[in-house]
Task: structure prediction
Amino acid sequence: MAMRYGRKILALWADYESRNSWVYVDGGFGWMRLRDDNFDAVQYMTTLAAEAKSDGRFVDLDEDPVGKVSQLYVW
Result:
């Protein structure tokens, strides 16, 4: 796992499929998929990411071993 500190969410993407949500992270990290093994977690992290993008707030995120965002902190 790797923590990414003080990043910004620049874009979001999702489609009609359940648990398929992505965020575009600044600093060269690009598109990162939100961890998809729990429906509620994906929904909550997508909402947090949307708020962060909308308000221009910084985020810290934890990237799991396969490159998915497993934790998202908005500040």
